[in-house]
Amino acid sequence: EPEVTQTPSHQVTQMGQEVILRCVPISNHLYFYWYRQILGQKVEFLVSFYNNEISEKSEIFDDQFSVERPDGSNFTLKIRSTKLEDSAMYFCASRDDRSRETQYFGPGTRLLVL
Amino acid sequence: DAKTTQPPSMDCAEGRAANLPCNHSTISGNEYVYWYRQIHSQGPQYIIHGLKNNETNEMASLIITEDRKSSTLILPHATLRDTAVYYCIVRVSTDKLIFGTGTRLQVFP
Fold it and tell me: For B92, which residue in chain A has the nearest alpha carbon?
Protein backbone atom coordinates (compact mmCIF):
# COMPACT_ATOMS: atom_id res chain seq x y z
CA GLU A 1 0.00 0.00 0.00
CA PRO A 2 1.43 3.41 -0.93
CA GLU A 3 2.32 5.65 1.98
CA VAL A 4 3.64 9.09 2.81
CA THR A 5 7.24 9.06 3.96
CA GLN A 6 9.14 11.71 5.92
CA THR A 7 12.79 12.32 6.60
CA PRO A 8 14.49 12.64 8.93
CA SER A 9 12.56 10.85 11.64
CA HIS A 10 14.35 12.94 14.27
CA GLN A 11 16.16 16.27 13.98
CA VAL A 12 17.99 18.14 16.69
CA THR A 13 19.05 21.70 15.95
CA GLN A 14 20.28 24.82 17.69
CA MET A 15 18.02 27.81 18.10
CA GLY A 16 18.38 30.17 15.16
CA GLN A 17 19.41 27.47 12.72
CA GLU A 18 17.53 26.64 9.56
CA VAL A 19 15.92 23.24 9.17
CA ILE A 20 14.32 21.54 6.21
CA LEU A 21 11.87 18.75 6.77
CA ARG A 22 11.23 16.49 3.84
CA CYS A 23 8.19 14.57 2.75
CA VAL A 24 7.48 12.26 -0.15
CA PRO A 25 3.72 12.27 -0.68
CA ILE A 26 1.87 9.40 -2.31
CA SER A 27 2.77 9.52 -5.97
CA ASN A 28 -0.52 10.45 -7.64
CA HIS A 29 -1.61 12.89 -4.95
CA LEU A 30 -2.08 16.55 -5.77
CA TYR A 31 -2.82 18.18 -2.41
CA PHE A 32 -0.21 18.47 0.31
CA TYR A 33 -0.29 19.56 3.91
CA TRP A 34 1.88 20.17 6.94
CA TYR A 35 0.64 19.80 10.49
CA ARG A 36 2.49 19.94 13.76
CA GLN A 37 1.93 18.59 17.24
CA ILE A 38 3.70 20.02 20.23
CA LEU A 39 4.24 17.35 22.87
CA GLY A 40 1.02 16.68 24.75
CA GLN A 41 -1.02 19.09 22.64
CA LYS A 42 -3.40 18.93 19.70
CA VAL A 43 -2.45 18.32 16.11
CA GLU A 44 -2.44 21.76 14.45
CA PHE A 45 -2.81 22.63 10.79
CA LEU A 46 0.05 24.67 9.32
CA VAL A 47 -0.39 24.91 5.57
CA SER A 48 -1.98 23.36 2.53
CA PHE A 49 -0.44 23.38 -0.93
CA TYR A 50 -1.84 22.70 -4.37
CA ASN A 51 -0.68 23.41 -7.89
CA ASN A 52 2.59 24.86 -6.63
CA GLU A 53 0.85 27.40 -4.47
CA ILE A 54 -0.15 27.74 -0.85
CA SER A 55 -3.91 27.23 -0.64
CA GLU A 56 -4.34 28.06 3.01
CA LYS A 57 -2.12 28.73 5.99
CA SER A 58 -2.66 29.11 9.69
CA GLU A 59 -1.53 31.88 12.01
CA ILE A 60 1.35 29.66 13.07
CA PHE A 61 2.73 29.65 9.54
CA ASP A 62 4.51 32.99 9.68
CA ASP A 63 7.39 34.35 7.61
CA GLN A 64 9.81 31.93 9.25
CA PHE A 65 8.08 29.05 7.50
CA SER A 66 8.05 28.18 3.83
CA VAL A 67 7.03 25.20 1.74
CA GLU A 68 8.26 24.01 -1.59
CA ARG A 69 7.80 21.22 -4.05
CA PRO A 70 11.28 21.25 -5.57
CA ASP A 71 10.67 18.30 -7.88
CA GLY A 72 7.94 15.87 -8.79
CA SER A 73 8.21 13.85 -5.64
CA ASN A 74 9.36 15.87 -2.64
CA PHE A 75 7.46 18.38 -0.53
CA THR A 76 9.49 20.33 2.00
CA LEU A 77 8.88 22.52 5.01
CA LYS A 78 11.62 25.01 5.84
CA ILE A 79 11.95 26.86 9.11
CA ARG A 80 14.43 29.68 8.57
CA SER A 81 15.43 30.54 12.11
CA THR A 82 14.21 27.98 14.58
CA LYS A 83 12.90 28.91 18.00
CA LEU A 84 12.58 26.76 21.09
CA GLU A 85 8.81 26.71 20.63
CA ASP A 86 9.18 25.11 17.20
CA SER A 87 10.02 21.85 18.93
CA ALA A 88 7.26 19.48 17.88
CA MET A 89 6.30 16.54 15.70
CA TYR A 90 5.75 17.68 12.14
CA PHE A 91 3.41 15.63 10.00
CA CYS A 92 3.10 15.77 6.26
CA ALA A 93 -0.14 14.65 4.61
CA SER A 94 -1.39 14.28 1.08
CA ARG A 95 -4.55 13.43 -0.78
CA ASP A 96 -5.66 12.94 -4.33
CA ASP A 97 -8.53 14.61 -6.05
CA ARG A 98 -10.78 11.58 -6.18
CA SER A 99 -10.99 10.62 -2.52
CA ARG A 100 -11.22 14.20 -1.40
CA GLU A 101 -12.03 13.31 2.14
CA THR A 102 -9.03 11.22 2.98
CA GLN A 103 -5.76 12.79 3.95
CA TYR A 104 -2.95 10.30 4.36
CA PHE A 105 -0.40 11.22 6.99
CA GLY A 106 3.26 10.40 7.19
CA PRO A 107 4.96 9.09 10.34
CA GLY A 108 6.26 12.52 11.30
CA THR A 109 9.58 14.21 12.02
CA ARG A 110 10.36 14.94 15.63
CA LEU A 111 12.12 18.31 15.77
CA LEU A 112 13.95 19.36 18.90
CA VAL A 113 15.30 22.89 19.10
CA LEU A 114 17.91 23.49 21.79
CA ASP B 1 -16.55 24.41 11.15
CA ALA B 2 -18.73 23.00 13.93
CA LYS B 3 -17.29 22.28 17.36
CA THR B 4 -17.23 18.71 18.63
CA THR B 5 -17.30 17.31 22.15
CA GLN B 6 -15.83 13.93 23.03
CA PRO B 7 -15.18 12.20 26.35
CA PRO B 8 -11.50 12.48 27.25
CA SER B 9 -11.02 8.76 27.81
CA MET B 10 -12.69 5.38 27.56
CA ASP B 11 -11.79 1.78 28.30
CA CYS B 12 -12.80 -1.30 26.36
CA ALA B 13 -12.13 -4.99 26.84
CA GLU B 14 -10.37 -6.75 23.99
CA GLY B 15 -12.84 -8.44 21.67
CA ARG B 16 -15.70 -6.23 22.74
CA ALA B 17 -17.24 -3.44 20.72
CA ALA B 18 -15.87 0.01 21.42
CA ASN B 19 -18.48 2.75 21.06
CA LEU B 20 -17.00 6.23 20.92
CA PRO B 21 -19.50 9.10 21.10
CA CYS B 22 -19.20 12.57 19.65
CA ASN B 23 -21.50 15.55 20.07
CA HIS B 24 -21.69 18.12 17.29
CA SER B 25 -24.89 19.98 18.09
CA THR B 26 -24.00 23.00 15.93
CA ILE B 27 -23.38 20.98 12.79
CA SER B 28 -24.82 22.48 9.64
CA GLY B 29 -26.45 20.70 6.75
CA ASN B 30 -23.41 20.38 4.51
CA GLU B 31 -20.84 19.46 7.14
CA TYR B 32 -19.42 15.97 7.16
CA VAL B 33 -18.40 13.98 10.24
CA TYR B 34 -14.91 12.48 10.01
CA TRP B 35 -13.06 10.17 12.35
CA TYR B 36 -9.31 9.85 12.56
CA ARG B 37 -7.14 8.16 15.13
CA GLN B 38 -3.59 8.60 16.33
CA ILE B 39 -1.67 5.69 17.73
CA HIS B 40 1.06 6.79 20.12
CA SER B 41 2.29 9.95 18.34
CA GLN B 42 2.23 8.35 14.91
CA GLY B 43 0.62 10.26 12.07
CA PRO B 44 -3.18 10.49 12.28
CA GLN B 45 -4.97 7.73 10.40
CA TYR B 46 -8.27 8.17 8.59
CA ILE B 47 -11.00 5.81 9.76
CA ILE B 48 -14.35 6.77 8.28
CA HIS B 49 -16.61 9.67 7.41
CA GLY B 50 -20.30 10.34 6.77
CA LEU B 51 -22.88 13.01 6.10
CA LYS B 52 -26.32 11.68 7.04
CA ASN B 53 -26.40 7.94 6.55
CA ASN B 54 -24.69 5.36 8.67
CA GLU B 55 -21.44 4.14 7.15
CA THR B 56 -19.37 1.00 7.49
CA ASN B 57 -15.96 0.02 6.22
CA GLU B 58 -13.37 -2.57 7.09
CA MET B 59 -12.23 -0.61 10.12
CA ALA B 60 -15.37 0.68 11.75
CA SER B 61 -18.99 1.76 11.59
CA LEU B 62 -20.29 5.28 11.94
CA ILE B 63 -23.75 5.90 13.31
CA ILE B 64 -25.12 9.42 12.87
CA THR B 65 -28.32 10.40 14.66
CA GLU B 66 -31.25 11.56 12.58
CA ASP B 67 -30.86 15.17 13.73
CA ARG B 68 -27.10 14.86 13.03
CA LYS B 69 -26.24 16.42 16.36
CA SER B 70 -24.25 13.44 17.51
CA SER B 71 -22.53 10.36 16.17
CA THR B 72 -20.91 7.18 17.40
CA LEU B 73 -17.87 5.42 16.04
CA ILE B 74 -18.06 1.68 16.57
CA LEU B 75 -15.07 -0.64 16.51
CA PRO B 76 -16.89 -3.96 16.45
CA HIS B 77 -14.17 -6.16 17.95
CA ALA B 78 -11.54 -4.00 19.61
CA THR B 79 -7.98 -5.27 19.76
CA LEU B 80 -5.00 -4.04 21.74
CA ARG B 81 -3.78 -2.35 18.55
CA ASP B 82 -6.86 -0.14 18.59
CA THR B 83 -5.53 1.67 21.66
CA ALA B 84 -5.23 5.23 20.38
CA VAL B 85 -6.62 8.75 20.54
CA TYR B 86 -9.75 9.01 18.39
CA TYR B 87 -10.72 12.33 16.87
CA CYS B 88 -14.16 13.33 15.68
CA ILE B 89 -13.92 16.21 13.20
CA VAL B 90 -16.77 18.10 11.59
CA ARG B 91 -16.01 20.19 8.56
CA VAL B 92 -17.09 21.54 5.22
CA SER B 93 -13.76 22.38 3.75
CA THR B 94 -11.90 19.52 2.13
CA ASP B 95 -8.60 21.05 3.07
CA LYS B 96 -7.47 21.56 6.62
CA LEU B 97 -8.39 19.23 9.43
CA ILE B 98 -9.03 20.81 12.81
CA PHE B 99 -8.21 18.34 15.54
CA GLY B 100 -9.62 18.56 19.05
CA THR B 101 -8.33 16.70 22.05
CA GLY B 102 -10.15 13.49 21.10
CA THR B 103 -10.95 10.41 23.15
CA ARG B 104 -8.12 8.29 24.46
CA LEU B 105 -9.31 4.70 24.03
CA GLN B 106 -7.53 2.09 26.11
CA VAL B 107 -8.21 -1.50 25.10
CA PHE B 108 -7.29 -3.93 27.84
CA PRO B 109 -6.77 -7.71 27.72
Answer: A101
